[in-house]
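can u pls check wat happens w/ protoporphyrin IX containing FE
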Amino acid sequence: MSTSENAPAPEVDAKVISLDEVNKHNSEEDCWIVIHGKVYDITKFLDEHPGGSDVVLNASGKDATSEYDDVGHSNTANKMMKEYFIGEYEGGDSAPEGSAQANASPGAFQTLMQFLLPLAIILLALYVRNMTQQK
Ligand code: HEM
């Protein structure tokens, strides 16, 4: 038993990093970024980023979750970023998956209307027929 003793601790012991701390690292030489409640040191990744270094630099030193999600990054990108993880963000995830936005689907209302509207028309027709037959 030997090699793993000095290995870095897994995410369980991850350091909690504040926004103030993240703010200090917003340059090309020292670039941190917050995405989904996690802090990444992407200094070494800047030149490799397929979307260019400028776009990530502009979003550095802050919570860039919405910018990251807006691009619709692939699973490859999601896996890639794990390599640069340095700690948990104090402010948590600003856009957790399955959050309000995702759940409040406009489709639910539409489906309900598709069912209720014909039902209302049928009931109205029955009511009218009933009324005319009584006379
Ligand atoms: C550690 C964080 C990031 C990683 C690992 C990463 C990785 C990648 C990868 C692998 C791609 C190629 C397309 C794909 O596979 O999705 C990509 C494209 C791109 N990324 Fe990122 N990215 C990161 C952060 C960001 C941020 C914060 C922004 C915006 C502020 C951003 C903006 C873009 C843009 C604009 C493209 C180009 C999309 C296109 O050409 O269609 N990325 N990124």
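Residues 105-134 form one domain.
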